[in-house]
Amino acid sequence: MKRYLLTVLFLANILKGVTAQEYQKLTLEDIYKNSIFKTNTIQGVRWMNDGRFYTSFVRNNENNNLDIIKYSTI
Fold first, then answer.
1. Smallest Cα–Cα separation from 57: which of 18, 34, 5, 65?
2. Of residues 36, 15, 18, the one with CA closest to residue 27
3. In whole angstroms, what is the distance from residue 69 CA to residue 56 CA?
4. pLDDT tens-digit map of 39-53
5. Alpha carbons 31 and 37: distance in angstroms, whole number
6. pLDDT band for position 20 (cuts 50, 70, 90)
7. 14/20: higher pLDDT
8. Could you state, in order of their start, the residue ranges of all structural domains in the chain?
9. Taking a C-beta distance cutoff of 8 angstroms, is the pair 67, 58 a contact?
10. 62 vs 5, residue with greater confidence
């Protein structure tokens, strides 16, 4: 009986969350003017000729220089 009651309470809590969501229409203004789907860009990335590595500039906080770091994609 206790297990049944816990199951019912759990399912009721899930259904309450699903029905409580409010849906808002997505407009072109939201996308282009308000930039709610803005993407982050990556700058300074260069692929190596073999395609297995890329390099990127990373700011060194100790001396404020840009270091070139090589990353593996595998």
1. 65
2. 36
3. 5
4. 777 777 899 998 899
5. 6
6. very low
7. 14
8. 2-72
9. yes
10. 62
Give backbone dihedrals phi and psi of 70, rounded to 5 degrees, phi first: -100, 130
Closest residue by Cα to residue 52 from 66, 70, 31, 72: 72
Assigned token pair, 48: 């190596």
Q: Are 52 and 73 in contact (CB under 8 A)?
A: yes
Taking Cα atoms as reference points, which of 70, 48, 69 lies closest to residue 60?
69
CA distance 19 to 30: 24
Please name the amino acid found at residue 18. V
With a threshold of 0.85, does the pTM exceed it? no
**H helices present in 20-50, as ranges:** 28-32
